[in-house]
Amino acid sequence: MKERAKSIQIVCILLGVIPIAVALACLWYCRAYPIHANQDNLEHILLSQAADLCSPAVPLTLQDSVTLGDITYQLAEVGPERKLLLFRVQRGPFSRFRPYGMASSSNEWYGSVIPLQKENYLLIGGRNLGRKIAKIECGWENGTHCTLDLPNTSIFLVCAALDAPPSSEHLDLDRMRFWDAAGQDITDDILQPGWGI
């Protein structure tokens, strides 16, 4: 009889503890991954991230985004100066997201090689003032090559798979070419002194 009463008591305690543990786990998860699955609060969360870098950070306008694996790269214009920032947002279990990093560039261009599983991707974004640039060609010392067609927009973020692993994760400006819509090489017009990615 005592054993049965003790078993019932243990079951009752467990039935009380398990829902509390589940509720605490859900609360932790929602705090760790604050961006909703439908990303309806993405702008609000990124604005709070940008507040440390751009003061005042309001307004924030989301621009292009690219998703590679579980990371979404999101360009946004922030503040009255319309500073261009690149945010990384990571998808977690149960389709919620969390901020995963932010980049700022003095010339507001971003370029990076992103290794993902067995492939490498080139991600380039920035301002295309006057929408002059229609295509960008990038190359590396080891012969890896990539061509990116740009959308006809003033702000862009594009990505392409590389044909082979590059010799460096950094872009070599000496091996970059910029082309306009007419197929004219405009590299010298784009790569002004002090310009970089």
Short key terms for the protein model shown above:
3 helices, alpha+beta, elongated, 3-stranded antiparallel beta sheet, 10 strands, single chain, Immunoglobulin-like, 4-stranded antiparallel beta sheet, 197 residues, 22% helix
In the sheet with the most strands, the strands line up as 1-2-3-4
Indicate the proportion of strand residues: 35-45%
Count of DSSP strands? 10
Helix/strand/pairing class, anyone?
A: alpha+beta
- The number of helical segments is 3
Rounded to an integer in angstroms, the radius of gyration calculated over CA atoms is: 24 Å
Low-confidence stretches: none
Structure description:
This protein has 197 residues and is an alpha+beta fold. The protein has a domain of 90 residues: Immunoglobulin-like. Helix content is 22%, strand content 36%. It contains three helices and ten strands. The strands form three sheets. It has a four-stranded antiparallel beta sheet with strand order 1-2-3-4. A three-stranded antiparallel beta sheet has the order 5-6-9, with no helix packed on it. A hairpin with a 2-residue loop joins strand 5 and strand 6. It is elongated and about 90 Å long. The termini are far apart. The relative contact order is 0.12.
Secondary-structure topology with pairs:
Layout (H helix, E strand, L loop, with lengths): L1 H31 L9 H9 L9 E9 L2 E8 L4 E9 L5 E8 L4 E8 L2 E9 L7 E5 L5 E5 L5 E7 L15 E3 L7 H4 L7
Antiparallel strand pairs: 1-2, 2-3, 3-4, 5-6, 6-9, 7-8, 7-10
